[in-house]
Amino acid sequence: MEKIRKIKRIIKECPCGKIIELRPKQYKRKKYCSTVCMYKYRYPNKGWIDTDGYRRISVNGKSIDEHKYIWVRHNQMPIPKGCCIHHINGNPLNNDIKNLILLPRGYHSSLHREIEKRRRLRI
Fold first, then answer.
1. HSE of 8 in the Cβ direction (CA atoms, 13 Å)?
2. How many other C-beta atoms can be found within 10 angstroms of the C-beta atom of residue 40?
3. Nearest 10 degrees: CA dihedral of 63, 68, 69, 73?
4. Residue 9 lies in a domain
5. Distance between terminal CA atoms of the chain?
6. Which domain holds residue 78?
7. 0.85 exceeded by pTM
8. Residue 105 domain flag
């Protein structure tokens, strides 16, 4: 009969408040529950990268996509309904105002479909 070994777990709290269970070896080096949390709390002034690859920042305690915030601040108007902000060069981390353009959602989707088709053909 095999012996089932129970691994001792240590409970630690992430800065976001989430409880994480760790093995003893992980205790000293693991400080965050996720990569998103790590960027959010390690680099609070620079923002963090979300799971879709966009940089997010905290404004008045609310999490917002940096490119949307920059576009709204520059144009001094909210993003109209049915529209979205597109990165011209395709790099979601390049949030320079010259790289951002407002597009209708339908056109934006068809543009990305076309880009994806061309990318597949190259491979």
1. 4
2. 21
3. -160
4. no
5. 53
6. 43-122
7. no
8. yes
Estimate the share of the chain in helix, then strand, then coil, as percent rounded to the nearest 5.
30, 25, 45
Token representation of residue 95 = 């949030």
Q: Give 71-77's long-range contacts (Cβ < 8 A, gap of 24+).
A: 71/97, 71/100, 71/102, 75/102
Distances from the Cα of 82 to the Cαs of 6, 31, 69, 111, in angstroms?
54, 40, 17, 15
Q: Is residue 18 part of a domain?
A: no
Which amino acid makes up residue 103?
Answer: L
Name the nearest CA neighbour of 55 among 44, 66, 45: 66
Dig out the tokens for 32 from the structure.
């965050």
* E strands in the chain: 10-13, 19-22, 48-49, 55-59, 62-65, 83-87, 100-104
Could you read off the pLDDT of 64-108 as tens digits, one per residue? Answer: 999 999 999 999 999 999 999 999 999 998 999 999 999 999 999
Report the domain count for the chain.
Answer: 1
Q: How far apart are alpha carbons 64 and 92 in whole angstroms?
A: 14
